[in-house]
Automatic annotation (TrEMBL):
This is Cysteine dioxygenase. Belongs to the cysteine dioxygenase family. The lineage of its organism: Bacteria, Bacillati, Bacillota, Bacilli, Bacillales. Keywords: Dioxygenase, Iron, Metal-binding, Oxidoreductase. It holds the Pfam family CDO_I.
Length: 163
């Protein structure tokens, strides 16, 4: 069976999974960088590559490619929960909280090595980065599909923009 067919079959009947259920489904797909090669995109408008592989009302499946030295914007996933599987590189996941004035403040950072999973509970604000020597490739599943996501800024980022 082809990868896209396997993904569609695996997620077709998923309604409201938690991140651990998503992990189980992802783990059963037998993913490798070679299998995902056709969906690994170079950065375009964003500082990283992002390709939607599959989408339904209940689930969105995305391949993310962070070249060396790049990072995502600080963001949330709206009403979605997420689970990601790192295939190549080491993903640094920075967790943020919002201060009273609305700026993002870093609370923690964790490194997720290849073959490991990252969980994104509903409401989490985070940023992913690649500080390693090569590219970072990861496979992400969000439920329900992404909508109403928001970007956030640190106080320093706002000052840099204003000054």
């Amino acid at each position: 069976m082809k990868l896209l067919e396997s993904i569609e079959q695996a997620f077709r009947n998923v309604k409201q999974p938690n991140p651990h259920e998503l992990r189980g489904i992802i783990g059963g797909l037998g993913l490798t960088s070679d299998l995902l090669a056709p969906w690994i995109e170079e950065p375009g408008l964003l500082p990283y590559g992002r390709k939607v592989m599959y989408q339904s009302a209940n689930v969105e499946v995305i391949v993310v490619h962070l070249p060396q030295g790049t990072e995502t914007f600080i963001h949330d996933h709206g009403a979605s929960v997420g689970c990601a599987f790192v295939l190549e590189g080491a993903l640094t996941n920075r967790i943020y909280r919002l201060g009273r004035e609305g700026y993002a403040y870093e609370e923690a950072a964790h490194v997720i090595e290849p073959g490991k999973f990252l969980y994104a509970p509903r409401g989490q604000i985070h940023q992913m980065s690649n500080a390693g020597p090569g590219r970072l490739v990861s496979f992400h599943v969000y439920a329900p599909k992404l909508s109403e996501t928001k970007m956030f800024y640190t106080y320093e980022q706002v000052l840099d923009y204003v000054i």
